[in-house]
Amino acid sequence: MSLIFAPLFSGSSGNALYVGTGAGGVLVDAGASGRNILAELNRAGVPQSQIRAILITHAHSDHVGGAGVLCRRLRVPIFATEGTWQEMHQKVGAIPQEMQCRVRAGENFYLAGLDIMPFAIPHDAGEPVGYSFRAGRLKAAVATDLGRIESGWFDEIAGSDIVLLEANHDVEMLRAGPYPYDLKRRILSSRGHLSNDEAGLAAVKLAETGCRTVLLGHLSKENNFPDLAFQTVAMHLENAGWIVGRDVRLDVARRDGLSGVYRLEDDNAPV
Ligand SMILES: [Zn+2]
Ligand SMILES: [Zn+2]
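^ Those are the sequences you sent over. The predicted structure of the assembly is below.
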């Protein structure tokens, strides 16, 4: 059993992630153009024919911008919560009824050899969710666009082998930066985005549950730097006694293209 995890775009200007097994896979969000997502998928070595569905976390444009185009082009269904569908309709164009699939937080479903669990997240959109994925004993999760650390979503990603975890902003950069007051308040709120320090606290908790690869993602272009996000989270891990690079692999996902193809193998799986 193997699980492939390939962030194609990650940042506040566009998000898309491929998660798959030998039996195909899914896109989580399609917030870049359809053409650019297909180009990065190609760079990841994933044929378009592998895509079985597009899962949407929430209806913000940086998560759905290319979803309609890809649904029609690849002829695959879109999975989203009812609240996301309501906000997403005018952003994705006409989607055939049979391509519109509803998910609910807490109700798992199966696609492409993956046991997929949507879970509720605190964010300022209609019924937003993250997703965790199980393939045999392997587990992966995507947890971005989170206003605060809380047990509900954290329990769903605990024990993952690999997590794409939000490290959106440095609080001081955000406070001193150019964003209008209301936008700053929204980002800092409990339904906004996780800061680097909050990502550090979550990474420590994840490491305690056995997670050995943390990818920091959804970085703000204006209020963060990849090195700053990395150093802040690494400091939290090392203060808690974890050696980054030995005990825990820590990477920063790229905003503008493929970050890498992470291939997890379940060595204990029966052959
Ligand atoms: Zn977002
Ligand atoms: Zn969002």
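The first helix runs from residue 34 to 43. Residues 12, 15, 60, 62-63, 145, 218 surround zinc ion (ligand 1) (CB under 6 Å).

Shout if you want it in another format.
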